[in-house]
Amino acid sequence: MTETLHTRTLIVGSGPAGYTAAVYAARAMLKPVLVQGIQPGGQLTITTEVENWPGDEVVMGPDLMERMERHAASVGVRVESDHIVEVDLRSPPFAVYGDSGCRYSCDSLILATGAQANWLGLPSEEKFKGHGVSACATCDGFFFRGCDVIVVGGGNTAVEESLFLTNFAEKVTLVHRRDQLRAEMILQERLFSNSKISTLWDHELVEVLGTSNPKSVTGAHVRHKLTGTITKLNCSGIFIAIGHSPASQLVADQLEMLPGGYVAVDPGTTRTSIPGVFAAGDLIDSIYRQAVTSAGSGCMAALDAEKFLSSQA
Q1: pLDDT digits over 200-217, tens only?
Q2: Where are the domains positioned within the chain?
Q3: Does domain 119-240 have CATH number 3.50.50.60?
Q4: pLDDT tens per residue across span 4-27
Q5: pLDDT tens, residue by residue, 246-287
Q6: Is 136 labeled as catalytic in the residue annotation?
Q7: Is 139 annotated in the active site?
Q8: What homologous superfamily does CATH list for 4-116+245-312?
Q9: Is 198 within 8 Å of 174 (Cβ atoms)?
Q10: 140 a catalytic residue
């Protein structure tokens, strides 16, 4: 028989937005339940040094998320290790189904499912995923000690991945399709001053090269955006760092959406197109996408949920 767990406020997601919402909801005596998802702690668990979290000059991403989880638990949040696979928002109480078989019922729902890595969509990229192609330097950098690697991208993620990989790799080549980076200037300064990193401007990755038995990466073909010239680069690993997309698939056909897959909310609030359903963090933010702004919107979501529940009493 399927177990049903009812709560006044259910929070789906366990990044800064989710945990902050949980803390505020617990302090409002809403007895919240938080479902962690497939990646407990969110994107910060695959980040190394975080230097822009207020109060910490430097903090490791996984450590920060462990602290948030402990904080939530200390104020009475019930944390469930489950992954949500279906949501029914047709009428309250809303029904939410976990991969564990548990059915969650809630009077208000806070969606904080974050974002997931983008990929280029190349057949060869798909072929070598997990065998030399990765979207997480923190997860896989250790396996490329003394090797030459490629990082694809030009934003903060690409630069941070490149810098991190210098702890292991012999050489890092950053391949960017434009002639300048989009990353913060302080990160660019660190990148350009690192002797292990070289930048290949105006190029795009068009094919991952490798062996089939055993499956491993041996190089890549990159194409010059202006001339079309194809160049072969030798490498043992390729890291795709071209950003993330909001993880909104669960509700894309039930809530009003914005371009890019972001959930639409009323300006200045976290209220979605369905009363009682709120969204926070990277799920709604196409501009800032920072841990601190995600935490702030998580606070807003809990306060919005409390106000909504009070109006229903």
Answers
A1: 999 999 999 999 999 999
A2: 4-116+245-312, 119-240
A3: yes
A4: 999 999 999 999 999 999 999 999
A5: 999 999 999 999 999 999 999 999 999 999 999 999 999 988
A6: yes
A7: yes
A8: FAD/NAD(P)-binding domain (3.50.50.60)
A9: yes
A10: yes
Read off the pTM: 0.81
Q: Among residues 102, 136, 147, 299, which one is catalytic?
A: 136
Instruction: Given the residues 140, 282, 285, 304, select the one marked as catalytic.
Output: 140
The 10s digit of each residue's pLDDT in 57-97 is 989 888 999 999 999 999 999 999 999 999 999 999 999 99
* Catalytic option among 63, 88, 99, 139: 139
Fold match flag (4-116+245-312 vs 119-240) = yes
Per-residue pLDDT, averaged over 158-167, amounts to: 95
Look at residues 190, 208, 195, 135 and name the one whose alpha carbon lies nearest to residue 169. 195
